[in-house]
Amino acid sequence: MNLSIQEHASPDSGQAVTFLLEQGEEMHFLHPEQIIAYRGPSDGRSDRLMNIKGMYRKKKLIQADMRGSCSFTAALPPGYSVKPIELAGGSDLLYDLRHLFFYSSGITMKTRILSAKNMLITRDAIKVKFAGTGTIGVLTEGMVLEAELHPDEPLYVDAGSVIAYPENAKLDLTVYGNTLASQHMNYHFKMTGVGTVLFQAGHRSSHLEKDLNNDGLIKRVLREIIPFGGVFIK
To answer: Which pTM does this prediction carry?
Structure first.
């Protein structure tokens, strides 16, 4: 599939991405309500209910099947960009459905119902897994990073930054470091296993940007060292 993606970003006008599909190409777009412009034959778009088992079926999630030749533009949430990921053959990564923007023809998507423990840890009941050859697109805050898991040595990743992880990875929700460190961090996934984890860098960068723009050094220090300083010192 020869998919062409053109990104448009401006601090004043927001962000969008334009997709260009050649004749005979097809992609499955998972957020059709974000499409704000379309050029092509009127029958080049066909919406349908997603084949999602379990809890998601009741939410009536809709996907748009787009067929070329056509072009269309989709608006992105503030601060997000689209990261294309090429797949070739099998992949053991589980993705959060909310991060997925599209997948191309040649890719099949299957659902995985999580164990009761992982439902509590991830606050989700279902993840999705892909097979086949093609391209998927994920919505990310900032650049996407990759880290290898180890069977015994844990990797700690900010829970809100994780995009995908291996299906057979062992997960625990925790914090790490000394008392002060553990009190001033988000919950992390403690992960062991085999394979790679995908996570986004921009999720935590927004907090740093807020600190740099709004807080002086003295105010930040006082907020950290005074009990309940984060409540009383704004």
So the answer is: 0.76
Q: Is 156 exposed, middle or buried (0-12, 13-18, 19+ CB in 10 A)?
A: middle
What is the length of the chain?
Answer: 234
Query: Which segments of the chain have a pLDDT < 70?
Result: 1-3, 9-14, 51-60, 203-234
Distance, in Å, from the CA atom of 222 to the CA atom of 58, rounded to the nearest integer, reads 48
User: Residue 3 has what pLDDT?
Assistant: 64
What is the token pair recorded at 181? 């460190």
32's tokens = 């059709």
SS (H, E, C) the chain: CCCEEEEEEECCCEEEEEEEECCCCEEEECCHHHEEEEECCHHHEEEEECCCCHHHHHHCCEEEEEECCEEEEEECCCCCEEEEEEECCCCCEEECHHHEEEEECCEEEEEEECCHHHHHHHCCCEEEEEEECEEEEEEECCCEEEEECCCCCCEEEEHHHEEEEECCCEEEEECCCCHHHHHCCCCEEEEECCCEEEEECHHHHHHHHHHHHHCCHHHHHHHHHCCCHHHHCC
Dihedral angle at the C-alpha atoms of 81, 84, 85, 86, nearest 10 degrees?
180
Nearest to 234 by CA among 219, 221, 224: 219
Q: What is the Cα–Cα distance from 216 to 52, expressed in whole angstroms?
A: 48
Contact predicate 27/9, CB 8 Å: no
